[in-house]
Design brief:
Length: 465
């Protein structure tokens, strides 16, 4: 993939150690010393929990032909194998981005970038799913959407790829500018811009401005697909010199959908006269479908009927509104992440479902909300009081959620606060019965999926009775 001299040039690095061979050819870039690295460069990333510089011996043992190390760690000395050359850089994370940018410039293919407070992973997966029927597509793995994940995805570009679909995430202003700067998207999608990462912003207006950094990075006239039902986002996106097209269910726009049916695990809609009947729940997922259809039809010329048929075969990514059954109890795991908007959407989806038993919400904490945290969890309590039969709140903010639900008129006997998963597990094992539908929703850091796994393990969901 690379010659050493190319890496030296694009990283502004300097070479140290044997062999002093600038034409050394490298098969790729790796950051995990545990994996096979034969013929690759091992780039030492300094993270919050691990420092790649501490694992260079293992990397060399696994075949690394070059080490890319930071200047400050190099100055400390004493940790580098003598038999492996080193490329010394100022900042290894920036070096990763520089290498990815160099590699990206080798390809003239369309690159679609998807961002948003909610739905970006699902929308990215939908776009890639539709396109994959016609071409070879590179897509971000899971949620590889940050300053490490996006470059690693770009480095997987190969000569036979015909398109790439990237997910770009952010929790600070300026991040999308950097990510789009080296990924050079040819089209962009903003699913929405809501109350996520409020710990790092003063309000929604700043979040919208940060999301629009993606649009600002697009070339003149490039396609920008924007949620037209979020009017403040739609208006701000209109200030850039791009071809703006909207999607939504309420406001007039190019890709306005008409909801045909919603509930009992399905959300069907019609757009531009074509019906689409996907096998997954949630009005919020109709928005994701509309955004994906817009990109595939407008940017790639995919036939709309074919694209809709493809979505009807699409399965949601892990931990996004995934339905599991055990002993007659339906569990909906929507616990990959959570913020006020996605929590509200999930609860509303549960409220519209047809059930034979009770509708139960297990709401774990929403993280990274800063001073807005109490208000957001109280909003969850109020929404739950109007939508579900039983509320189980889990985590440090559970008291605020439960108190708000009680003030909103929910029966005290139907409200439960749990400080940890062990409490929630004991409560739910004793409570759940056949016919119940349970929604699990919380931020990724709460690891709510572990509770779902315990409750569904070997079908032992609830006691008889």
């Amino acid at each position: 993939m690379f010659e050493l001299r190319e890496l030296i040039q694009c990283c502004s690095g300097r070479l140290s150690g044997p062999p002093d061979d600038p034409v050394l050819r490298l098969k790729g870039i790796g950051i995990d010393s545990r994996l096979p690295l034969t013929g690759q460069a091992f780039l030492c990333i300094q993270g919050d929990r691990f420092d790649g510089h501490d694992f260079v011996e293992q990397a060399v043992a696994n075949g690394a032909a070059l080490l890319i190390v930071q200047e400050d760690r190099m100055a400390q000395g004493g940790f580098l194998p003598k038999k492996c050359p080193c490329l010394i850089v100022k900042d290894s994370i920036k070096a990763l981005a520089d290498i990815a940018a160099f590699h990206r410039r080798r390809f003239g293919i369309p690159v679609i970038a998807v961002t948003g407070s909610n739905g970006k992973t699902t929308t990215k997966e939908m776009i890639a799913h539709i396109l994959s029927a016609k071409m070879r597509v590179l897509k971000s793995r899971a949620s590889f959407n940050n300053q490490i994940g996006v470059p690693l995805t770009l480095l997987k570009l190969e000569s036979d790829h015909q398109a790439a679909v990237l997910e770009l995430g952010m929790n600070h202003a300026g991040e999308l500018t950097r990510l789009a700067g080296f990924s050079r998207p040819t089209a962009g999608v903003i699913t929405n811009a809501g109350s996520a990462h409020l710990e790092f912003f003063s309000g929604t207006e700043e979040i919208i401005a940060a999301k629009c950094e993606l649009i600002a990075a697009l070339a003149l006239g490039s396609l920008a697909i924007i949620n037209a039902d979020q009017e403040d986002l739609w208006d701000m996106a209109g200030s850039f010199s791009v071809t703006r097209q909207g999607f939504g269910l309420e406001n007039d726009c190019e890709w306005r959908g008409e909801l045909l049916a919603e509930g009992n695990g399905r959300a069907w809609f019609r757009v531009k006269g074509v019906e689409c009947r996907p096998e997954f729940p949630g009005v919020h997922n109709v928005y994701n479908c509309l955004a994906a259809l817009a990109v595939c039809v407008e940017q790639f010329g995919i036939d709309l009927r074919e694209a809709c048929a493809s979505l009807e075969e699409f399965s949601l990514p892990d931990l996004r509104m995934q339905v599991r059954e055990a002993r007659g109890i339906r569990m909906i795991a929507d616990c990959y992440n959570a913020n006020p908007a996605s929590m509200r959407a999930a609860i509303q989806t549960l409220s519209r479902m047809t059930v034979t038993g009770r509708k139960i919400l297990v709401a774990a904490d929403m993280l990274e909300l800063g001073r807005f945290s109490r208000r957001a969890h109280e909003e969850t309590g109020r929404t739950a009081a109007e939508a579900v039969d039983v509320l189980v709140a889990l985590g440090g903010m559970a008291g605020f959620t439960c108190a708000a639900a009680l003030r909103a008129g929910m029966d005290k006997a139907a409200i439960f606060a749990c400080q940890d998963q062990a409490d929630a597990e004991r409560l739910l094992f004793g409570m759940l019965r056949e016919g119940d539908t349970v929604l699990f929703k919380g931020s990724r850091g709460t690891r709510l999926e572990e509770l779902v796994g315990k409750l569904t393990d070997n079908g032992k969901t609830a006691r008889d009775g």
